[in-house]
Design brief:
139 residues; alpha+beta
Amino acid sequence: MNKLIQRIKALLQRILKRFSSNSEQPSPLINSRPLDTSIKSVSPRWESGLVLVCSQCANEQSGSTASEELENWLKSRLKFEGLWGEFRVVNTSCLGVCPRMGITVVIVNNGSVGNSPCLIVNPQSDRELLYSRIKQNKE
């Protein structure tokens, strides 16, 4: 019986020793490569600005596709006037403004520093006004 207890103790000591030496090593589940802190940076194709159109605003209001229609209208208008490469129009998920009426649009100037204003746009009546505001970023 004493031999059995001694063998169990020796086995437990080996297990504890192995466990403590493994705790100092990185877990095999964690990537042990050093973290690369150099993130590649590229210049965007859109030089004058980025227009973010919230895709959730119209969906929340009535299930309409008004934000998609506004996005497509802006794209076609920019292409028609030859400004598509300078500006980029993309839809985005919720921007957190959530107006009762209208669609949230953010115009980000490529050279701007700080916050860009969120515009609450009526997708039908404010199209031309929004478009002129976008073009102002070019000047």
